[in-house]
Amino acid sequence: MNHREIKKESNLLYKAVLPLLEKGGNFERLVLTDLAKILQICGRSHGELTSNELLAFLVVFALIKRDTEKLHIAIDLWDTSSEVRRNTEKEMLRLLLELTNSTNQSEQLALPSVLNKFDEEKGANYLDKVVNALYRFAQVIVKADGKVTMQEMEALSQIWQLLHSYNSSETYAQAIAPENFSLPVQNVDDVLAELNKLVGMENIKTEVRTLTNFLRVQQARAQRGMAKTPTSLHAVFSGPPGTGKTTVARLMGKIFKELGFLAKGHLVETDRAGMVASHIGGTAEKVDALVKSALDGVLFIDEAYALKPLNSTQDFGQEAIDVLIKRMEDYRNRLVVIVAGYTDEMVTFVESNPGLKSRFNRYFYFKDYTPDELVAIFNKLCKDSHFKPTEAANQTLRALLNTLYDRRDRTFGNARLVRNLFEKTIEQQANRLAVISTLTDEVLTTIQPEDIPLLEVLLPRQSDREPTRQEAINLNATSVLDEPLPQDGIQQLTTLINQALQPDGITAKANLKDHSLQILFEAETAPSEQQMVDFVNEMLPRLKPSFITQVQLYGRQPGAEFPAWSQELTV
What we know:
It is a single chain. With 571 residues, this protein is an alpha/beta fold. It has 25 helices and twelve strands. The strands form three sheets. A five-stranded parallel sheet has the order 2-3-5-1-6. Strands 4-12-11-10-9 form a five-stranded mixed sheet, with helices on one face. Helix 2 packs across helix 5, helix 14 (282-294) runs parallel beside helix 15 (316-330) and helix 18 (371-384) packs across helix 19 (391-406). This is AAA family ATPase.
């Protein structure tokens, strides 16, 4: 690759991240730091950073920093003055070391996590564009010396994984400061066009357009001084995972903003863990903080039914529901709440509380994607990441997805499954390319049929995987408890529980007192309250303990004086 092409590609990266840089805050530092880490990974794959790779970083750095002197060196002096080039290379190496040593996470990229959270809270769409631009830049770096080795292909695979790993970012608050962001200006038709570009979900698109038309009429009536029809925008999104519920919720927030029903229209996403605390008073604080962050926007609660576990009489989840209902009333003109989850569970959840039932009267039913739609999603992932499947590869892909679709159950992953399939595909492509000596752009971007993973790779055989917790319960219960649990069978019960939880590193102690079964769970990190409640609810029917009327659960770290949480269940 000649210097002109390197400079061109570097300029394309700058244009891709420029809208983000204009937001201010610490985004400039995050972009440069992650670029430095990407360079470090690429350089390590072939032993050193080459002159071409340093040139690519120099151009991006000079454009971001608006450093006219360095830009002059890159454009005018790099090819004409070897002394200036050597000195600049040394300066770039020092800068790279400074950037990569400025964080405790040696290789973890911070920008994807920050943008993932930023997009959720602000209803923006920076993540995909920036991540795709960074990955393209990594490809440029790898090809800068004119050849691509197996080690460099492995480096590209690692970078792709890092760019698609989203962790809790401690730097998020600093990254977005000062908080002066607002959603980009869009009209409603632009948002609807964005909705129409999504694969499938035709029934959802129709429902959203119908709601939009209704709100437009309400807006027109209000502008003419006519009485407004009372309108509740709270909604229930029900359906299987991976069907685009969060994406649609974000677009609806934008529509509400553009029509004047919300001032910001941003999306704040949470679940039970983000709302329920393990101590008295903590739940109300968490819910209030979430509501405050979502004011003038949309609060999206995933798996909302987990707030009301079955067979639970004392649970802070009910407190979260009560506080949420109160805040929905307090801020009825400033807050839209969307609850999401499996259809049956969401019906039970809403019907369980009159306050919820009266506030949620809009239902959107999301369906599994068809095999053809799953193929379209895969091809979009390829296009966004600069890959192109051949027709034969698409035929192999379609056959695989047809089989997976026919075998699906209620946990079928839909778009999430396709993303996992795409990741495995590019890994297998990298292995195939390892034996090719000459790698052109076409070779690097083409997906062949042999790159599509086999069914066995996605669905390992029973003998090749660890049993699930439920399978462990059933398997161990068969050998330990062929009959209903006797009153003196606490030791048997403790053995069963520990066998089932051993893969998770959790130990348990059980005690029976006045028909009340007490179980203490311990682990290095206090076991998840909801996971242990679900575990016991799965286990109890198998034990048939007629003499037990109540179950008390506790979770803590070994040696802790007090439990981190407690829970009471009625049998």
